[in-house]
Design goal:
The complex is a heterodimer of chains A (493) and B (66).
Chain A: H1 7-13, H2 18-30, H3 35-50, H4 62-89, H5 94-110, H6 112-115, H7 118-140, H8 144-152, E1 170-171, E2 176-179, E3 184-188, E4 192-200, E5 203-211, E6 216-219, E7 224-227, E8 232-234, H9 248-252, H10 259-279, H11 288-315, H12 332-336, H13 341-374, H14 379-383, H15 385-399, H16 406-422, H17 431-451, H18 457-462, H19 466-492
Antiparallel strand pairs in A: 1-8, 2-7, 3-6, 3-8, 4-5, 4-7
Helix pairs in contact in A: 1-11, 1-13, 2-3, 2-4, 2-11, 3-10, 3-11, 4-5, 4-13, 4-15, 4-16, 4-17, 5-13, 5-15, 7-11, 7-13, 8-11, 10-16, 13-15, 16-17, 16-19, 17-19
Chain B: H1 2-26, E1 35-36, E2 39-40, H2 41-65
The chains are: A alpha+beta (493), B mainly alpha (66).
Amino acid sequence: MSGSPSAALRAVAAWTGPVVFVTVAARVFAGAPNAPLLLLAALVAPLAALLQAPAEDEPPAPMRAAVLCASATVLLCANVLALADAASALGIDRWRGIAVAGACAFLVALWRGIVSRAAAAVVVGVVLVLSAVGALGMLIGVSPWTAWRETSLRPALGFADDSVWVNAGRRVGQATTLTFAESHRVTAESAATWRVTEREGNETTTREWKLSPGDALTLRPGDRLVLEANARVRFETGKRVPGALPSGAAWAHPEGGTSGAVVNFVGTALTLVGGALVLLRPRARVSALGAVGAPAGLVAVMLAAGAAGIYAAYAGAELGLGVAARAPFLRAPALLLAPPASVALTATAALALLFLFMGTAAALRDRVVATLAATEGPRLLRRHADLVWLAMLGAAVCASLGPADAWQVFLAGCGLAACAWTAGPAENHGEGAAAVGVAAGAALFALLAIGRPALPWGFAALAAYPALVAVPFAHAVAITAGTVLAGAARSYR
Amino acid sequence: MLTALSQRAAIVTLLTLLTLAIVLAADPLHLGGVRVAGVSLLWWYAGAAGPLAAVVVTIVALALRS
């Protein structure tokens, strides 16, 4: 099998970034209804993309290239956000995480030697991820399936007796809302104003309490407590972790069978597959090494993410409190092991995320620069594709400074890219018609994604996954435009 | 011809694997919740059997393309 030895690895490098790993692990930890399905979908989408014919001889149409570049920027932003979340979970300021991610991405953009080693960065990242998760399992002597079984048998997901949260207390980091399922005495360990919302039948009452260190409040089932950022609190020993699922059985068997959850998952899966088909299409023929290495690397990352989420749940539901909830698996070694092993494993996991990010940044830069160089767009863009990528990188880093959900941003990038894919078959109607379709689809996608909060209820539900509306729309517009343009050409002749 | 056919078959198989997971999760008989060696069938499928099957199908299809 002749071909580029790293074409397949470079293609999947755009997918194996921190955002997918962190999200899959966090959903598994939280016992989200679609967690196991998400793990499978996040693997199947890039595998389907790898099976496409290589795009080596097909210069992309300008409109398609523009949408692809925009979606690559959004994907990069999602990965920067995920690294920032990981930094927060480790107790590091969010902006420092963004700064490190931005510096790495700029290094990748400016140093061509690193770009050509995107595949190597991914391989190092995969090895580190497997080392961190595998070593954690070996050191505690528990396999992922044993950890899953033991977690699922817990009658309640509560605080351990030796937990910091019930002894010395801890800062929540970010502003947090906690919902209590049982009576719970919470103690303020720092001066703060707490807002408690109590529910009596259909009526809710909100009260503010100014507390000094040592003051305590007893919250009843159904009460909601809003804590300011960096509030230090202490919970009651033996009680359930507020916000967590009530028991191991509820964690193991989430309510995934409801129609809403299925629709939600189908929307996510189609968006992922559509985005992957555009963003991960190999640019050269896949070699024998790539044909085995890329799928094996993907499955290794996804299974490691699932195992990391299971180990985090096994370590304790308290990892879902405060900023740790953004990447709970990074805090799991500290609960399960003593230093220096816990520190070494946490550092390995963090380093793995950084390498995966560098691989993703290199792969996205590679894809954007190659697309701009090959497209029939303005000559200035083609000649200065590197500068364009630097500008896109700056935009992505700046955008990640604002509060946003990394996974939602990732889905937006995939959905936007999907608009460029489905209009592809409509290219039989001419390149101009396809361009009109892609532009219309991308515009509708952006409109739905940005304007969703302002839409009436029915439309808002439809716009939860804008790609499901925008992609067929792009296709229909392309076909209509093709028919109109063909008719006009016949009339002219 | 064979290449295109194998690619399409592989993509259809991948999507079928994904659909089976949805069916298992949404099954009204709750088959996905049945425990095998302490772990639910849905997790065995989505976390082990499905991913491994998907990878094998992809590798075989990519090999056939050569």
